Each structure stands twice: as structure tokens, then as C-alpha cells.
Amino acid sequence: MKGGSAAKLIVDALLQRFLPLARRRIETAQAQDGQYLRPSDPAYEQVLDSLAMIARHTPVPLLEALLRWRESESPKGANDASTFQKKLAVECIFCSACIRFVECCPQEGLTEKLWSGLENFVFDWLINADRVVSQVEYPSLVDLRGLLLDLVAQLLGALSRIRFSSVTERFFMELNTRRIDTSMARSETLSIVNGMRYLKLGVKTEGGLNASASFVAKANPLNRAPHKRKSELYHALCNMLSNILAPLEDGGRNQWPPSGVHNALALWYEAVGRIRMQLIHWMDKQSKHIAVGYPLVTLLLCLGDPQIFHSNLSPHMEQLYKLLKDKNHRFMALDCLHRVLRFYLSVHAASQPPNRIWDYLDSVTSQLLAAVRKGTLTQDVQHDKLVEFCVTIAEHNLDFAMNHMILELLKQDSSPSEAKVIGLRALLDIVMSPSSPYVGLEIFKGQDIGHYIPKVRAAIESILRSCHRVYSQALLTSSKTTIGKIFFQVYEGLRARITLL
């Protein structure tokens, strides 16, 4: 059997599985949230896995088949909500398939025409989404359109893995052609900028890091000066760069700094350092930029020159402590503090003296505990972030985390009930970690800090007694429905999970 015939048979077999699943998803797609278009059922996931596997070996016939399917399923004619709903559903399915395809397809697997066609598909939707499906005329399709644009952005990110120069050049070209300040040009510019948020930066080779440094320098949010509504574009570019840089920082010691790219790294450090200083001056002038500026400044500090990182770490944290007291910036400050502390522990702590590490940990935990005791951290997302702090510190120094964070949160003092819930959640996450070779509280014995076991048990028993006492009194005077949410979290949650500890 010839290679071409074999490839066709393989693609046809896959399409026989793909087509009915895709058709069912189109028929059941709901404009309200697009939930039926997300890869949620095992059969659809299996088909996408098969599609990715075939993309490695016979990419051209597979992509051509997907393009034919898209063309045949896209509705023609009437311009009504039902027609546009089906069109968006088809595009969502096509786009999700293309993401898996591009993630596995080798660069040489497609012709330039096919690669360019995928790029054009991405930018056409980013630019023309409002022309195709107006948010004003079809408000019921806003969520489904939003899902499609997120998938389009993911596809652009996948394309950037192997066509970085082409994608970024197109990005800057599209921005430059929209310098004329009209409402339509602004809307298109913001859509294009938002669509770049999944861009993948190459850092493992000199060439890749050079290209990444060049992109970051050109994407400096303050490089562009529209005549009207400057902040809107500046903020969009800040958010874009934060999303692009975050995966590098998240990689920690395993990814940053890259090795064997000394010359390119120097250019990178210069670029991110320059942008960081400009953003700091920009935020100093107007506080309205802080919410988008500080997350980016934090990332630029982490990914910049190590000497500059160490010399600026303390003042940066002090500024974040101040922002922690501002209710408008509280969660942003928490997130930035966690990000910079995690990066410090992951990337730099191994080369730092123990007393310096202790000072940083003590500084952060003191600020967090003070905020908890004052009752200023009241939102669920803030509590989630505090749990992350505890786990991050425990991964580096379990002894410190227990003595200076967990047991402090579990204390039976005037602290709000939320503190105990946070402490218990963090403790459960630590002792039930899938990566731990120990079960429950045995993790402390494994790290030669078994003396915490009786302290933890005593703290939990004290909380249980207190909860039981208050719970019993409350039932005498109130119905269960009038007992507060936090109380039930503490009491019922403790009763259900105490056996795990």
C-alpha cells in the first residue's frame, strides 16, 4: 500500500469518530456558556488525543480534512442568532482541534501556505469578531464568542512555539496599521493585544532568547502613545506581558535562568530592567496604574538580573506590604508577594545564607498574620492565596511553616474564625500532598520535627471543643440556617476531616 493511501485511510478512520462527536456538540451547544464545546467528555478527549498523534506523522491530509469539515459545516445564508450560534460552535470545535494539531505538528510538517492560513484564521477572528457577531446585536452569544476568542488566543500561542518571528511580526504590523485613533481601530487593537496573552517565549537557545528579548523590548507598554485613552492601551499591554512572562517565572529553578545562553541573557536583562524602571516611574505619577503595573513589575524583577533582584527585593516587598493595606489592591499585593517569595525560594534560596532566608520568611509571615488578625482579608480568593503561602513555605522549610504560620493560625485567641480555617486547609494540603512519601502527620517524623505532632493535635482538639461548645449553644437558640457560613466551615469541616490527621 502506498504511503498516501495509508495516510488517507488513517485520517478517514479518525474522521469517522470525530464527525458524529463534533455534530453532537454543535447541536447541543448553548450560547449561554458554551459548556458543551469544552473538551469534557472522554470520547471527545480520546479523539483529540488521536488527532494529536496523527498530526506528528500525516499532518497535511489531516489539516486539509479539518478545513473541509469546517467549510461544509459552517452555515450559509441567514443572519440570525441561531445561524451565528452554529457558526461560532463550528469555529470553536475547529479551533480546539487545531490547537492539539499545532502542538504536535513538526514545523516541516506543513507547507508555508497552510501555516499562513492558520495564522490568518487567528488574526482574522481577533480583528473581525465584532463585525462577524456583534456583541450589541447578539448579546446572547457574548459568552460563546468569548470562548471562541479564548481558543483563538490559545491557537496563536501554539503557533508561536514554531513560528515565533512570523506571529510577532504580524502582531506589530497589525498594531502599526491602527495608529489612526478611531473607536474601531482601538477596539481591534485591544482585541489583538488580548489575543497575544498565550504567546510562548523561547529561552533555551541563544536565538530563541534573543528573539524573546527583542519582542519584550518592542512590546514595552509605554512605547506607544495613542492620542486618546492612553491608559486603556497601556493597561492591555501590561496584562498581555504579565500573561506571557508568568510561565517563565512559574517554572522556577527548573526553567530560570536558562543555561548556555550568556550573551542573549545579558540582552534580556537589559530589556526587562529598562521596562521595569519605566513602569515604576509611570506608577509613581498616577496610582490608577498600580493594579496592572505591579504584577508586571514583579515579574520583570524576578526575571531580571539576579544582582538587581537581590538589591531590590526588600524595597519591593515593603511597597507590596503598603499595598496590602489598601482594600483596592489587597489581592493583587498578596498575589505579587506570593509570586516573588516563591521565586526567591525556588531559584535563589539555595545560594543564600540561612539567616537571610529566615529574615525574608519572617518578614512576609508577620505581615500576613497581622492582616489576618485585623480581619482585613475577608475574601475567599484571599484565603486561597494564604493557603498557597503556607504550602509554598512548607515545601522549602516545613519547620518554619509550622512554627511561624500554621500553629499561629490555629491558635485559640482573638483571631477570627477564618484564620483557623486557613490554617486547617493549609495543614491538610501539606500532610495530604500526593508527592509526600508519608501519610498524614507522619510527614513531621520524616523530617525530624515530630515534636509538632502533639502540638497540632492539641490545637485541633482545642478548636473542636470550642466549636462544639458554640455549636451546641447556637442550636439551642437558632435554627441551623441562621448559623454563619464560617462556623459551619470550621465545625462540619473539622468533624469530617479530623480522621485524616
Describe this structure in words.
- With 501 residues, the protein is mainly alpha-helical.
- It is built from 21 helices and no strands.
- It has three domains: 1-200, no CATH class; 205-352, no CATH class; 362-501.
- The chain has helices at residues 3-28, 42-57, 59-73, 81-104, 112-132, 142-160, 164-176, 183-194, 206-218, 230-250, 262-285, 290-302, 306-324, 330-348, 354-374, 380-396, 398-410, 417-431, 442-446, 452-477, 485-497.
- Helix 2 (42-57) packs across helix 3 (59-73) and helix 18 (417-431) packs parallel to helix 21.
Number of strands: 0
First-last Cα distance: 62 Å
H/E element sequence: HHHHHHHHHHHHHHHHHHHHH
On the 0 to 100 scale, the average pLDDT is 84
Domains, number? 3
Write down the Rg: 27 Å
Q: Counting H and I runs of at least 4 residues, what is the number of helices?
A: 21
* Oligomeric state: single chain
Helical residue percent band: over 70%
Largest sheet: none
Structural class: mainly alpha
What's the helix and strand layout?
Layout: H1 3-28, H2 42-57, H3 59-73, H4 81-104, H5 112-132, H6 142-160, H7 164-176, H8 183-194, H9 206-218, H10 230-250, H11 262-285, H12 290-302, H13 306-324, H14 330-348, H15 354-374, H16 380-396, H17 398-410, H18 417-431, H19 442-446, H20 452-477, H21 485-497
Helix pairs in contact: 1-2, 1-3, 1-4, 2-3, 2-4, 3-4, 4-6, 5-6, 5-8, 8-10, 9-11, 10-12, 11-12, 12-14, 13-14, 13-15, 14-16, 15-17, 16-17, 16-18, 17-18, 17-20, 18-21, 20-21
